[in-house]
Amino acid sequence: MRVQLIRHATLWLEYAGVTFLIDPMFSPQGANPPIMNSDNERRNPLVPLPGELDAWLAPDAVIVTHLHADHWDAAAAQALPKSSTILCQPGNQDAFRTAGFTDVTEIIDSTTFRGVTVHRTNGQHGTGEIGERMGKVSGFVFQADGEPTLYIAGDTIWCEDVKTALDTYKPDLTIVNAGGARFVVGDPITMDADDVIQVVQYAPYTKVIAVHMDSINHCHVTRDVLRARLAEQRLLEQLAIPEDGEWM
Asked: For the residues 105-134, what does the mean pLDDT come to?
Protein backbone atom coordinates (compact mmCIF):
# COMPACT_ATOMS: atom_id res chain seq x y z
CA MET A 1 0.00 0.00 0.00
CA ARG A 2 1.13 3.54 -0.84
CA VAL A 3 -0.73 6.75 -0.03
CA GLN A 4 -0.01 10.23 -1.32
CA LEU A 5 -1.48 13.32 0.31
CA ILE A 6 -2.26 15.58 -2.61
CA ARG A 7 -3.79 18.47 -0.67
CA HIS A 8 -6.33 18.92 2.14
CA ALA A 9 -8.36 15.65 2.14
CA THR A 10 -7.44 14.69 -1.43
CA LEU A 11 -5.52 11.42 -1.46
CA TRP A 12 -4.08 9.06 -4.05
CA LEU A 13 -4.19 5.49 -2.79
CA GLU A 14 -2.45 2.50 -4.36
CA TYR A 15 -3.92 -0.58 -2.72
CA ALA A 16 -3.73 -4.24 -3.81
CA GLY A 17 -2.90 -3.18 -7.35
CA VAL A 18 -5.84 -0.76 -7.55
CA THR A 19 -5.59 3.04 -7.62
CA PHE A 20 -8.14 5.21 -5.83
CA LEU A 21 -8.52 8.99 -5.93
CA ILE A 22 -10.22 10.16 -2.75
CA ASP A 23 -12.11 13.43 -2.22
CA PRO A 24 -10.69 15.36 -5.17
CA MET A 25 -10.50 19.14 -4.74
CA PHE A 26 -8.65 20.44 -7.79
CA SER A 27 -9.39 24.19 -7.73
CA PRO A 28 -6.37 26.46 -8.30
CA GLN A 29 -5.04 28.42 -5.33
CA GLY A 30 -7.38 31.29 -4.42
CA ALA A 31 -10.05 30.38 -6.97
CA ASN A 32 -12.87 30.20 -4.41
CA PRO A 33 -14.19 32.63 -1.77
CA PRO A 34 -13.72 32.16 1.97
CA ILE A 35 -15.98 29.64 3.69
CA MET A 36 -19.21 31.36 4.73
CA ASN A 37 -19.39 32.40 8.40
CA SER A 38 -15.65 31.95 8.90
CA ASP A 39 -13.52 34.47 10.76
CA ASN A 40 -11.17 35.59 7.97
CA GLU A 41 -11.27 36.59 4.31
CA ARG A 42 -8.57 34.34 2.87
CA ARG A 43 -9.58 32.83 -0.46
CA ASN A 44 -9.54 29.08 -0.99
CA PRO A 45 -7.66 26.90 -1.49
CA LEU A 46 -4.88 28.61 0.45
CA VAL A 47 -2.17 26.64 -1.35
CA PRO A 48 -1.66 25.29 -4.89
CA LEU A 49 -1.71 21.67 -5.95
CA PRO A 50 1.73 20.07 -5.41
CA GLY A 51 2.07 18.94 -9.02
CA GLU A 52 0.47 18.78 -12.42
CA LEU A 53 -3.23 17.90 -12.40
CA ASP A 54 -2.84 15.23 -15.09
CA ALA A 55 -1.06 13.00 -12.59
CA TRP A 56 -4.34 12.29 -10.76
CA LEU A 57 -6.94 12.08 -13.54
CA ALA A 58 -6.86 8.36 -14.35
CA PRO A 59 -7.50 6.36 -11.16
CA ASP A 60 -9.27 3.03 -11.25
CA ALA A 61 -11.97 4.57 -9.05
CA VAL A 62 -12.85 7.85 -7.36
CA ILE A 63 -14.18 7.74 -3.80
CA VAL A 64 -16.06 10.75 -2.44
CA THR A 65 -16.91 10.79 1.26
CA HIS A 66 -19.48 13.62 0.90
CA LEU A 67 -20.29 16.49 -1.42
CA HIS A 68 -18.91 19.54 0.41
CA ALA A 69 -16.87 21.62 -2.01
CA ASP A 70 -13.55 20.98 -0.26
CA HIS A 71 -14.01 17.26 -0.99
CA TRP A 72 -15.63 17.37 -4.43
CA ASP A 73 -15.37 20.65 -6.32
CA ALA A 74 -16.36 21.96 -9.73
CA ALA A 75 -12.77 21.69 -10.91
CA ALA A 76 -12.72 17.95 -10.16
CA ALA A 77 -16.09 17.43 -11.81
CA GLN A 78 -14.80 19.17 -14.92
CA ALA A 79 -11.36 17.56 -15.06
CA LEU A 80 -12.21 13.91 -14.43
CA PRO A 81 -13.49 11.81 -17.36
CA LYS A 82 -17.25 11.30 -17.23
CA SER A 83 -16.62 7.57 -17.55
CA SER A 84 -14.74 7.51 -14.22
CA THR A 85 -15.94 4.97 -11.67
CA ILE A 86 -17.39 6.90 -8.73
CA LEU A 87 -18.00 5.30 -5.32
CA CYS A 88 -20.00 7.46 -2.92
CA GLN A 89 -22.23 7.48 0.13
CA PRO A 90 -25.99 6.85 -0.04
CA GLY A 91 -27.94 9.83 -1.30
CA ASN A 92 -25.14 11.35 -3.40
CA GLN A 93 -25.52 9.35 -6.61
CA ASP A 94 -27.93 11.76 -8.31
CA ALA A 95 -25.51 14.67 -7.94
CA PHE A 96 -22.82 12.77 -9.84
CA ARG A 97 -25.19 11.59 -12.53
CA THR A 98 -26.51 15.14 -12.98
CA ALA A 99 -22.88 16.22 -13.49
CA GLY A 100 -22.61 13.69 -16.33
CA PHE A 101 -20.87 10.76 -14.63
CA THR A 102 -22.20 7.44 -15.86
CA ASP A 103 -20.58 4.84 -13.58
CA VAL A 104 -21.70 5.71 -10.05
CA THR A 105 -22.23 3.30 -7.13
CA GLU A 106 -23.56 4.19 -3.71
CA ILE A 107 -21.93 2.17 -0.93
CA ILE A 108 -24.59 1.43 1.65
CA ASP A 109 -22.59 -1.00 3.78
CA SER A 110 -19.76 -2.41 1.65
CA THR A 111 -18.77 -3.27 -1.88
CA THR A 112 -15.93 -5.14 -3.56
CA PHE A 113 -14.04 -3.45 -6.38
CA ARG A 114 -11.35 -5.39 -8.24
CA GLY A 115 -10.64 -7.54 -5.20
CA VAL A 116 -10.64 -4.67 -2.69
CA THR A 117 -13.46 -4.64 -0.13
CA VAL A 118 -14.57 -1.14 0.79
CA HIS A 119 -16.74 -0.73 3.89
CA ARG A 120 -18.62 2.50 4.60
CA THR A 121 -18.50 3.95 8.12
CA ASN A 122 -20.46 6.74 9.75
CA GLY A 123 -19.23 10.02 11.19
CA GLN A 124 -20.40 13.18 12.92
CA HIS A 125 -19.59 16.42 11.07
CA GLY A 126 -19.88 18.67 14.12
CA THR A 127 -22.16 18.97 17.14
CA GLY A 128 -25.70 20.16 17.77
CA GLU A 129 -27.60 22.11 15.14
CA ILE A 130 -24.45 22.82 13.12
CA GLY A 131 -23.62 19.14 12.98
CA GLU A 132 -27.13 18.39 11.74
CA ARG A 133 -26.96 21.11 9.10
CA MET A 134 -23.60 19.81 7.83
CA GLY A 135 -25.41 16.67 6.77
CA LYS A 136 -24.47 13.04 6.30
CA VAL A 137 -20.80 12.15 5.99
CA SER A 138 -19.00 8.85 5.58
CA GLY A 139 -15.65 7.24 6.06
CA PHE A 140 -14.34 4.13 4.29
CA VAL A 141 -12.33 1.08 5.34
CA PHE A 142 -10.21 -0.79 2.78
CA GLN A 143 -9.35 -4.47 3.08
CA ALA A 144 -7.66 -6.94 0.70
CA ASP A 145 -5.59 -10.08 0.99
CA GLY A 146 -1.99 -9.29 1.80
CA GLU A 147 -2.67 -5.63 2.54
CA PRO A 148 -2.94 -3.72 5.83
CA THR A 149 -6.41 -2.53 6.79
CA LEU A 150 -6.85 1.17 6.09
CA TYR A 151 -9.51 3.39 7.68
CA ILE A 152 -10.18 6.80 6.16
CA ALA A 153 -12.39 8.50 8.73
CA GLY A 154 -13.59 11.41 6.60
CA ASP A 155 -15.00 14.68 7.93
CA THR A 156 -15.87 13.71 11.48
CA ILE A 157 -15.08 14.73 15.00
CA TRP A 158 -14.10 12.17 17.65
CA CYS A 159 -17.36 10.37 18.40
CA GLU A 160 -18.97 6.98 18.92
CA ASP A 161 -19.03 6.34 15.17
CA VAL A 162 -15.24 6.58 15.02
CA LYS A 163 -14.88 4.35 18.07
CA THR A 164 -17.17 1.79 16.44
CA ALA A 165 -15.13 1.79 13.23
CA LEU A 166 -11.89 1.37 15.16
CA ASP A 167 -13.32 -1.42 17.30
CA THR A 168 -14.87 -3.23 14.35
CA TYR A 169 -11.99 -3.16 11.89
CA LYS A 170 -8.86 -2.69 14.05
CA PRO A 171 -7.15 -0.81 11.20
CA ASP A 172 -3.40 -0.88 10.80
CA LEU A 173 -3.55 2.66 9.44
CA THR A 174 -6.07 5.43 10.16
CA ILE A 175 -6.29 8.69 8.21
CA VAL A 176 -8.12 11.48 10.03
CA ASN A 177 -9.27 14.86 8.76
CA ALA A 178 -7.83 17.28 11.27
CA GLY A 179 -7.63 21.06 11.04
CA GLY A 180 -10.30 21.84 13.61
CA ALA A 181 -12.52 23.41 10.92
CA ARG A 182 -15.13 25.70 12.44
CA PHE A 183 -17.39 28.67 11.89
CA VAL A 184 -17.58 31.89 13.91
CA VAL A 185 -20.04 30.13 16.25
CA GLY A 186 -20.17 26.55 17.42
CA ASP A 187 -17.73 23.72 17.98
CA PRO A 188 -15.26 22.30 15.47
CA ILE A 189 -16.72 20.27 12.61
CA THR A 190 -13.56 18.23 11.96
CA MET A 191 -11.03 16.85 14.41
CA ASP A 192 -9.03 19.37 16.39
CA ALA A 193 -5.85 18.51 18.28
CA ASP A 194 -7.75 17.07 21.25
CA ASP A 195 -9.74 14.78 18.96
CA VAL A 196 -6.63 13.50 17.22
CA ILE A 197 -5.08 12.80 20.63
CA GLN A 198 -8.21 10.82 21.54
CA VAL A 199 -7.82 8.65 18.43
CA VAL A 200 -4.15 8.00 19.13
CA GLN A 201 -4.78 7.13 22.78
CA TYR A 202 -7.88 5.04 22.13
CA ALA A 203 -6.30 2.91 19.38
CA PRO A 204 -2.55 2.60 20.05
CA TYR A 205 -2.41 -0.33 17.59
CA THR A 206 -3.11 1.92 14.60
CA LYS A 207 -0.72 4.35 12.93
CA VAL A 208 -2.53 7.66 12.52
CA ILE A 209 -2.03 10.03 9.60
CA ALA A 210 -3.47 13.53 9.99
CA VAL A 211 -4.46 15.50 6.87
CA HIS A 212 -6.97 18.30 6.05
CA MET A 213 -4.76 21.17 7.30
CA ASP A 214 -3.27 24.45 6.03
CA SER A 215 -5.41 24.59 2.90
CA ILE A 216 -8.91 25.93 3.70
CA ASN A 217 -9.50 29.20 5.55
CA HIS A 218 -11.73 27.91 8.38
CA CYS A 219 -9.30 25.18 9.48
CA HIS A 220 -7.43 26.70 12.42
CA VAL A 221 -5.37 23.75 13.68
CA THR A 222 -2.25 23.87 11.54
CA ARG A 223 0.34 21.15 11.11
CA ASP A 224 2.64 23.04 13.49
CA VAL A 225 -0.05 23.36 16.15
CA LEU A 226 -0.96 19.68 15.91
CA ARG A 227 2.66 18.57 15.97
CA ALA A 228 3.33 20.65 19.10
CA ARG A 229 0.28 19.26 20.93
CA LEU A 230 1.20 15.66 20.14
CA ALA A 231 4.77 16.33 21.24
CA GLU A 232 3.48 17.62 24.58
CA GLN A 233 1.64 14.32 25.04
CA ARG A 234 4.65 12.30 23.85
CA LEU A 235 2.51 10.75 21.12
CA LEU A 236 4.32 11.89 17.99
CA GLU A 237 5.66 8.40 17.27
CA GLN A 238 2.09 7.21 16.63
CA LEU A 239 1.28 10.06 14.24
CA ALA A 240 2.37 11.15 10.78
CA ILE A 241 1.64 14.65 9.47
CA PRO A 242 2.51 14.63 5.77
CA GLU A 243 3.15 17.65 3.60
CA ASP A 244 1.22 18.22 0.38
CA GLY A 245 2.51 15.86 -2.29
CA GLU A 246 4.20 13.54 0.22
CA TRP A 247 4.06 9.76 -0.19
CA MET A 248 3.59 7.42 2.75
From this structure: 96
Q: Which domains does the chain have, with CATH numbers?
A: 2-240 (3.60.15.10)
Single-letter residue type at 226:
L
Asked if residue 232 lies in contact with residue 194, where contact means CB atoms within 8 angstroms, the answer is no
Long-range contacts of residues 166-169, Cβ cutoff 8 Å, at least 24 apart? 166/199, 166/202, 166/203, 166/206, 169/119, 169/141, 169/143
In this prediction, residue 77 carries a pLDDT of 98
* H or E element that contains 4: strand 2-7
Cα distance between residue 114 and residue 142, in whole Å? 12
Please give the single-letter amino acid code of residue 85: T
Name the percent of the chain lying above pLDDT 70.
100
Q: What is the pTM of this model?
A: 0.97
Average pLDDT score over residue span 223-233: 97
Name residue 202's amino acid: Y
